[in-house]
Amino acid sequence: MMRSLALVTICSLLAGAAGAAEPAIADPIVWRAYDAAISEASQTGKPVLIHFTADWCGWCTKMKRETYTQPDVARLMNEAFVPILVDADRNPQLKARYGVQGLPTIWFVTSDGKGITYIPGFVDAATFRSVLQWIASGAYASQSFEQYRAAEG
């Protein structure tokens, strides 16, 4: 009996320590399910942002913590885009449809479903903010991202 209690106590302490080591990440982005988001985009005219991720992806977690938590990035994503979060492991058909090879990958799509561009890998907040502004403003239709950034100053 004493041995069982000690084992339960040790397991409880270890579980608590493991939970404390990995705090929950507050998510300021209002993510939508794929089908609902595509419908919303066609009604609102907003471009779609599709973030392909997986639970095991360290760079995805880094992006969630360092990029998506920045207030100006979250505001732009929520106001100017219809954001979709796709677990690549659970949605292999979508992963294949968008040709995703690595994670994270972020696809930007027009409200009528045409691909604008995609970004493979982690993106820091400052760069991502510029990408969001470039696409939200419609500048992508007339100038490259490099030209946009140079004009941004």
Topology:
Blueprint: H1 2-21, H2 34-44, E1 48-53, H3 58-66, H4 71-80, E2 82-87, H5 92-97, E3 105-109, E4 115-120, H6 125-136, H7 145-152
Parallel strand pairs: 1-2
Antiparallel strand pairs: 1-3, 3-4
Helix pairs in contact: 4-6
Describe this structure in words.
- Helix content is 50%, strand content 15%.
- Helix 4 (71-80) packs parallel to helix 6.
- It is globular, with a radius of gyration of 19 Å.
- It has helices at 2-21, 34-44, 58-66, 71-80, 92-97, 125-136, 145-152, and strands at residues 48-53, 82-87, 105-109, 115-120.
- A 4-stranded mixed sheet has the order 2-1-3-4, with helices on both faces.
- Mean pLDDT is 87; it is low at 1-22.
- The protein has one domain: 3-Layer(aba) Sandwich (Glutaredoxin), CATH 3.40.30.
- The longest helix has 20 residues, at 2-21.
- By secondary structure, the chain is of the alpha+beta class.
- The protein starts with a helix and ends with a helix.
- The protein is built from 7 helices and 4 strands.
Q: What name does CATH use for the topology?
A: Glutaredoxin
Mind describing the biggest β-sheet? 4 strands, mixed
Strand arrangement within the widest β-sheet reads: 2-1-3-4
Domains (count): 1
State the end-to-end CA separation. 71 Å
Mean pLDDT: 87
- As a percent range, the share of helical residues equals 40-55%
Q: DSSP helix count?
A: 7
Number of strands: 4
Q: So what's the overall shape?
A: globular
CATH class: Alpha Beta
- In CATH, the homologous superfamily goes by the name Glutaredoxin
Stretches where pLDDT is under 50 for at least 5 consecutive residues are: 1-22
Question: What class do helices, strands and sheet pairing give?
Answer: alpha+beta
H/E element string? HHEHHEHEEHH
The whole-angstrom Rg is 19 Å
Query: What portion of the residues fall into strands of 2 or more residues?
Result: 15-25%
CATH architecture: 3-Layer(aba) Sandwich
